[in-house]
Write a structure and sequence with these properties.
Aminopeptidase, six-stranded mixed β-sheet, five-stranded antiparallel β-sheet
Length: 391
């Protein structure tokens, strides 16, 4: 089973709660406090319910079994589906490295309503009790999906064939840095700008094969201001914006793949990565800022981006595909203030393919065969997103 890979350092643990179900203690859960609200992980849900988790790659959903009921969550979504019926938990789920984080009060109240239980929540316990007159079948269902008939399988194949041949939208690919801006430089002298351009071109070709209209922000080693890259995407009415980069760190041991979306940064590491990429602003002929510290004022209004949820999901899917393909660790998608993503009117992500400052990863991403792998993996993630999330 795939697991979600993201962790926000601002999360803190709350007091342990005892879970009591129909008079029987089922163990404990340890809430995580997120923005002053209590959340629990899906790994804790299946532990107290002695159930299982199933991650549906195609639908980008996570299913769990809890005391006989089938519960389905999706990332950044306030709705949970319990035995086929949707319930509003009041707060959206959050991505976490062990699974999804679920709003504790909202989930257990939804579960109680769906299964005919009353619920009592205190600072030390969660107690669910069956209400009088509710039949066992109302809350102890096993909702197994029936196998598809040959006819339905044929119709599904036909639908997929039609999907593969129709036009799928405009995607703008941004090769990070360029011209007088070399980007990060690896231990052997390889420049980031010389890695990002071929990957962007390979990605363009892959996306065209998949039916997308793929465009580049730069086709050669030229310098383009960050705001102009976004402007290109908006003028083309792009459906998606993908910026390609290589990560860098003062520690040569830092490694892995990470994909970012536009959002206030929650960790020092995310802020550092954004600051590194935003240095390009200082090379512009008429820079909008004199130093990177000023950027916090410019980025002050990005807290509620219209495309933030879609961008965060796209970041997760692309990161998982990319890490699996090139054998790097997935560091976990994260939000940060990347100026190149600012002002985009579409789902937008910044892909840090690997660490150019790591000698091993520098060698890996410098090879054309691996650059093609990277492009193919990103393209596959985009196609998965469009098929299952965007439409």
């Amino acid at each position: 089973m795939k697991i979600f890979l993201i962790f926000f350092a601002s999360y803190v643990f709350g007091s342990t709660l005892v879970v009591i179900y129909d008079g029987v203690s089922k163990g404990t859960v340890e809430p995580i406090i997120v923005n002053n609200f209590r959340y629990i992980g899906t790994d804790q849900i299946v532990r107290i319910g002695d159930g299982k988790r199933y991650y549906a790659t195609k639908k980008f959903k996570e299913s769990v079994r809890l005391w006989g009921s089938r519960v389905v969550f999706s990332p950044e979504n306030p709705y949970v589906v319990i035995d086929g019926t949707p319930y509003n938990m009041g707060l959206p789920t959050k991505l976490d490295r062990k699974g999804l984080l679920v709003p504790l009060e909202g989930f257990f109240k939804s579960f109680a309503a769906a299964t005919g239980h009353s619920i009592e929540l205190t600072d030390s316990s969660i107690e669910l009790s069956i209400t009088e007159g509710t039949s066992e079948s109302a809350y102890n269902k096993i909702d197994e999906s029936p196998s598809e008939s040959p006819k339905s399988q044929l119709l599904e194949r036909k639908r997929k064939s039609e999907e593969e041949t129709k036009y799928k939208g405009v995607i703008v690919i941004d090769a990070g840095h360029g011209g007088k801006d070399p980007g990060a430089i690896g231990p052997s002298g390889i420049r980031e700008k010389d890695i990002t351009l071929p990957i962007a071109k390979y990605l363009r070709d892959e996306l065209k094969l998949l039916g997308f209209d793929a465009k580049l922000t730069r086709y050669s080693d030229v310098f383009i201001p960050l705001s102009k890259r976004t402007e290109i995407a908006n003028k083309l009415n792009a459906d998606m914006f993908i910026s390609i980069h290589c990560n860098a760190s003062k520690k040569s041991s830092s490694n892995g793949t990470q994909v970012f979306y536009l959002s206030p940064a929650r960790t020092d590491e995310a802020r550092a990565t954004a600051a590194l990429e935003n240095q390009s602003l200082l090379l512009e002929d008429e820079p909008i800022i004199d130093n990177i510290d000023e950027l916090q004022y410019i980025m002050a209004d990005i807290a509620q981006s219209a495309h933030q949820r879609e961008s965060s999901i796209l970041a997760y899917i692309v990161e998982q595909n990319l890490a699996d393909s090139i054998g790097t660790i997935a560091r976990g998608p994260a939000g940060a203030g990347f100026y190149v993503l600012y002002g985009t009117y579409m789902p937008a992500i910044l892909v840090e393919t690997a660490f150019i400052s790591n000698p091993d990863e520098e060698k890996m991403i410098a090879l054309p065969k691996n650059q093609k792998k990277i492009a193919k993996a990103i393209a596959a993630g985009i196609a998965q997103f469009v098929e299952n999330i965007k439409q």
